[in-house]
Amino acid sequence: MRTKNEGRAAALRVRFQDAPWRVHSLTTGVFFGACMTAFGYVQHPGSWTRAIVIGLNEGVFFGALMGPLQVRERRKRVAAIGKMPNRDLWVAGRALMRGPVPVDPKMSSKTS
After folding, report:
1. What is the pTM of this model?
2. Of 16, 34, 77, 79, which one has the fewest beta carbons inside 10 Å?
3. How far apart are alpha carbons 51 and 84 in whole angstroms?
């Protein structure tokens, strides 16, 4: 049984997936830049300035590339699957990425 919070999380996930490329660019760039800042500091300890500059540059570059790419892939998936409810779209997208579900019930329970 799903709780109220699981329903909200699913709705938020769908809302984020339907967001414009600018939102995807910003979120992926910020998270990637933060990871690269931490990695840069671990790799070259003692210089936070250098780590922040590296993280900013890589975050901007990564976000600029990945934002539009994510939106384009989402549009292709929705176009290939067609119009259906969001839950079914998620299941179909997962099957599209992993391949068809086996017909044998024993095998399908092991693969999911």
Report:
1. 0.64
2. 79
3. 45
